[in-house]
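// run 5 | inverse folding | seed 20
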């Protein structure tokens, strides 16, 4: 018997030969992402981890939801690596913190600030969280081919949605002193956006000798407001699905 991935509920023989996984956070986004790539089949759904296999003329991929945050993402990457996957693209949503980034724009992360709270179990904090240049190249080329607005730069991955991203629309409105003013500071340091998983992916992938990249659709610009724009989510998901399917195709056909 081959390896059995406990959390993903996947057997090695079900995914043999598949090298590339797309990693959304939400299980309900898996089928949309898979169908943008080609014909698809659901393989497993255990806890937050839904796995869908998709196929087109360029090859086969997996789409695996990781749940919210770095700890569950690290479990998915660990188990997928043991199943033979070595290329990872995170596809998610984010809040922009620089002026001039519009809702619906796409952010491709070159590197990430490690406030994710999980990557320090893999490497000490001075270790950088950076994408693999080939994955960045494929995402960039896909955005250009499809003519979608994108930004390239540094992402801040926070372990929490509220205090770590300095949101005051909370139960008490209180934020500990070490995080007060942090959004302005990251903005001054050129960070583009907040999300919750990229730094974990980049760090874990590097440490394990795997390749990773990440792209996120902008749900809100924090210079303008706090709440995400619910009604824009579907449009942003469609755009992300198209771009990531194209990037996956470029990677599989070696054209990135
Ligand atoms: N995801 C986040 O982590 N932050 C946002 O502002 C939007 C999506």
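// decoded
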């Amino acid at each position: 018997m081959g390896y059995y991935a406990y959390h993903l509920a996947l057997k090695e023989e079900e995914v043999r030969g598949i090298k590339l996984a797309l990693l959304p956070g939400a299980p309900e986004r898996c089928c949309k992402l898979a169908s943008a790539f080609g014909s698809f089949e659901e393989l497993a759904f255990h806890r937050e981890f839904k796995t869908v296999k998709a196929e087109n003329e360029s090859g086969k991929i997996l789409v695996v939801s990781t749940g919210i945050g770095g700890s569950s993402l690290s479990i998915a990457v660990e188990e997928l690596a043991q199943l033979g996957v070595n290329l990872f693209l995170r596809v998610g949503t984010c809040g922009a913190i620089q002026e001039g980034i519009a809702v619906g724009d796409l952010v491709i992360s070159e590197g990430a600030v490690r406030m994710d709270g999980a990557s320090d179990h893999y490497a000490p904090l001075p270790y950088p969280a950076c994408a693999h240049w080939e994955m960045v190249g494929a995402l960039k080329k896909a955005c250009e081919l499809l003519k979608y607005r994108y930004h390239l730069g540094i992402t801040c991955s926070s372990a929490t949605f509220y205090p770590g991203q300095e949101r005051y629309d909370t139960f008490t409105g209180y934020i500990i002193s070490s995080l007060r003013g942090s959004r302005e500071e990251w903005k001054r340091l050129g960070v583009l956006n907040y999300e919750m998983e990229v730094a974990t992916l980049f760090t874990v992938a590097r440490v394990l000798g795997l390749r990773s990249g990440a792209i996120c659709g902008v749900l809100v610009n924090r210079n303008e407001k706090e709440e995400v724009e619910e009604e824009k989510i579907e449009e942003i998901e469609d755009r992300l699905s198209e771009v990531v399917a194209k990037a996956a195709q470029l990677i599989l056909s070696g054209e990135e």
